[in-house]
Amino acid sequence: MQGRGMSRSFLIMLVTVAAISPLGINLYLPSMPGMAASLGVDYAAVQVTLSVYLAAVAVGQLIIGPVSDRYGRRPALLGGLVLFVIGSLICLLAPNIAVLNVGRVIQALGGCAGISLSRAIVRDMYDRTQAASMIAYVTMGMAVAPMIAPTIGGVLEAMHGWRASFAFLMLFGVGTLVATYRMLHETNPWRGAASGPRQLLQGYRQLLGMPAFWGFAFTAALTSAAFFAFVGGAAYVTIELMGRSPVQYGLYFGLVSVGYIAGNFCSGRFVSKLGPQRMIRLGILLSGSSVVLMAALYGLDDMQPAFIFVPTMLLGVGNGLVLPSCVAGAVSVKPEVAGAASGLAGSIQIGFGAIVAPLVGALVATSAWPMILITGACILLSTLSIRLALK
Fold it and tell me: Is the dihedral of CA 66, 69, 75, 77 positive or negative?
């Protein structure tokens, strides 16, 4: 399949399936304070629904990657979309926080297929450098979802309450399932190579001994963790501490996604000229600078949302420069187990987010400083991990 181009409609389909899980993360963020009041729990309990989702995405990718290597990308992706629709329905009807968390787990286990398998499908069709460029374009389109999701979620919350967000996710999942069933052809030329559970796990054993894989995977995870540190605290800081509405939070959050789209566009446009290593280093440098700027502005005035969102827009640009090249590097160390590599790298990436987001959510009760400091720590650690890959 390598070298074969993809049609515009096929690319749009990949963007849509990749956007499923980010929608599940971001659409209901403006509703979190309202959900706490409606379900009779505190904000920290609602924050757990985000952590549970991220943890389930991390675990799910460990399963879906090897399964797609063995049975093919198409059946694995279709099955994941069915689970996402079922999980969204459970969340929509949830009478309490416990049932909501069950629905979030099922929703996440299905949604993770879109993240992992969209990358593996691209790697099936292109070599490493081309894959970095195409992953960037897929991610750029996918980034529209988190850009508009908080705004949509804020409007739905204001008009119909928090359950409307999960109704939207269910309908979006159904539409994506239908489109994928009609358009997706099988892309994995190595499917069927493994004949049992032991062989399915062999891909992970091979990856364990490859320092380059771990360097790329940890750099992507730490760069993403910086973003999740912001997500974990930004809604509470903006709505509760700064006194802004959920709709205003959604509009401000759009700045972050604009930066992420711009970074991915630059990756898609320039990675073949500058090379993946330069793109990664430039992205880390820009991300670190954004944290310094955020700290300086927030220190001047802690009641201005723009002072945390504008610098985080630059953090989004940095993410867009780093992630496509890191993901392409991770899934290219051994192409015949690209599904396992994509699943493991994605699991590490989301797993870091599942740790960081609730930590920040628990610490921002009176100030955004914990969010800023943890974001900076993640970027600092990413500068160390990338050295392992580039060696």
Answer: positive
